[in-house]
Protein: DASS family sodium-coupled anion symporter
Amino acid sequence: MISKINWKAFLLPLILGIAIWLLTPFKPTDINTAAWHLFAIFVATIVACITKPLPMMATTLIGITIATLSGIFTMDEVTAGFGNSTAWMVAMCMFMAAGFIKSGLGKRIAYLFVKLFGKHTLGLAYALSAVDTVLAIGIPSNNARVNGIMYPIIDNLSHEMGSDPKKGTQRKLGSFLIFNEYEINNVTSGLFLTGLAGNMVALGLAKTQGITVSWLQWFAAASVPGILSLLVIPFVLYKVYPPEVKETPNAHAWADARLKEIGKMTLSEKIMLTTFVLAIGLWLVGTKIGIDATEVSFIAVVILLITGVLTTKDMLKESFAWNILVWLSVIMLMSQKLMTLGFFPWFSKTLGNALHGMSWLFVLIILFLAYFYLHYMFPSVSTQISALYAGFLSVAIGAGVPHTLAALMLAFCGSIYLSTTPYSAGPAALLSGTGYVSNKEWWQLSALIGVIFNVIWLGGGLLWTKVIGLW
Structure:
């Protein structure tokens, strides 16, 4: 049986790609023909990732095949591109996330926090926020954290407290906790390099432009705006979108019952916890002893395989990990080639000259806000990063923004812009469809929290990067 293909979705990518290709005689003299042709293929590939005639993995494979037939790449270059360390790190972290869920450690951590801090509704929100924060260190999938761990717990707890959308009682507790989880998940996604696959995609693209950022550098820069957001968001939502139930004394008993139900900590949980702590330690100090972040993720997965916490069958089931390994490798291979052929340096220099005389700080602020609000047009975090990050970074560099600062600020934006819409990413689509928060409330609250995020991450975040010496 032949699968259905959305052939109409090929039209725009083909039109744009062919149009740019045919403009080769009119290209800037500073760009060679190979660079221009690859630019045409790159644009067509990225647009196809947005229109989605096929999944991103298939789309990028088509793009790289065309580039190879055009003589821009050799097959040796293409196959070597699948050894990209960033793409493998993302895949390995996804396998670690599978270990969290399979072992049951994620749920146990959540129940413990609810038991300890869940007596008051606001305290319960902070407790659940803390759970997401801990999980984000080792689970780079916001979908896995929300869909696999956080939402089922919040939903069950809400029902236990008499808050159920089907009965019209969602505002008792569930609405507040659900929307808080949505926004906190966006914060924790940006707090750690390993909190979101898109973070590693962004820094992989930055690496093609000669900018390298470690796990510790990321956390150092994100720590203050991230922690400030974790403190501010639950409190603001508690005030502007208050739950009807202010006290939750039953939460302690509910969580205690769940813990008794799952029993004592299993061997697989203990191994997962030990591996998780080891990975955190190596991410923090690994560069000082010659172990980079990708190697750490390999070490962790190997431990889980040797001990039986994960099996090769578990890994093969993680289709998203294998999917991102392919398309991210291809996108980064194209970006690296555009850098090598001189396209990005030309782009950066040209726009830098056009912005001559304008303060780089002002340029960075404009780019950050534009990058944030453009997410209203994108239903996927990875698609926007693949389409816009490299170009925005080139503009920033051309305007004189310190390179590491530019890479980090735009990458941070790639997490917090998930707060924009009900279709911003998988967690938004899931949580907005549960009935706990109405569509109108979702848009209104998202707009408000978006402003707060920009004040904290762009305003406070920039000041903090000054303190730690990034500019």
Summary: The longest helix spans residues 439-467. The radius of gyration is 23 Å. The mean pLDDT is 88. The CA atoms of residues 108 and 259 lie 7 Å apart.
